[in-house]
Amino acid sequence: MVVINRDTYNEAFRQLGDREVYRVMPTDLTQQITEMVNDRIRKLLGDGYIDDKTLDYLLVNSTPRAGRFYLLPKIHKKGCPGRSVVSGCGTCAERVSEFVDFHIKPLVPEITSYVKDTKHFLQVLQNLGRLPEGALLVTADVVGLYPHIPHKEGLSAMREALGSSGQSSIPAEDLLDLARIVLRSNNLTFTGKHYVQILGTAIGTKMTPSYASIFMGKLETDLLEWAPTKPIFWKRFIDDIFSSGQRARRA
Fold first, then answer.
1. By mean pLDDT, which of 43-47, 69-73, 111-115, 153-157 is the weakest?
2. DSSP per residue over 162-185, as a string?
3. Residue 42 and residue 55 in contact, taking contact as beta carbons nearer than 8 Å
4. Which 3 state secondary structure label does DSSP give 143?
5. Among 196, 235, 251, which residue's Cα sits nearest to residue 24?
6. 44-88, pLDDT tens digit by residue?
7. Residue 248 parent element (H or E)
8. Mean confidence (pLDDT) of the chain
9. Distance between CA atoms of 9 and 63, rounded to whole angstroms?
10. H-helix or E-strand containing 116?
């Protein structure tokens, strides 16, 4: 738990002021989004892809509310910047996001660079064997991955992963429609003002880690395919990358 001055929390207004990521709304969009979610869920039932029990779980029956924006202060960094989080608890897209995650989460371990957790990573390193003499060890991560995944590229990566897997009982286009609702209807509130996130996905909605991992899997596959020099080793946990390669030889 971190206790900071209210003035320091102005970092939240700085982030919400980024018009490439957030848009100020004159009113709360929760009711409109609720109707859109319920219509789409009823269509899944009508098409025979979910049963009545799943319908009852996914329908927004109670009084939903907008997501709550807050920061996780990075006290180890200069200026104490904050990681933006939108709490999805009680929002109209909360269970839709959970439903999408249920169907795309099994796709993540199929990615070649997949790392489950620290224990798995240590096992991978143990099995790596001896690297060539002079090999470089490299760590890297993506700055602000979640709020900067373009919707078009993210959904395209998700479509490709669903198409190559064939595991889901729900058609890919239906899952993509639900994912679009989660991504494009991420309305939130902060100090009484209403916003909607127009780029990326929020930390706080359940499908985010799986969705981001699938996007990164597609991105790294394309980049490594184009790279003239291939790494010896490449593993990734969401946006944290560990790789090794040989030093470039001088001409």
1. 69-73
2. HHHH---SS-HHHHHHHHHHHHHT
3. yes
4. coil
5. 196
6. 999 999 999 999 999 998 789 999 999 888 888 887 778 889 999
7. none
8. 91
9. 29
10. none
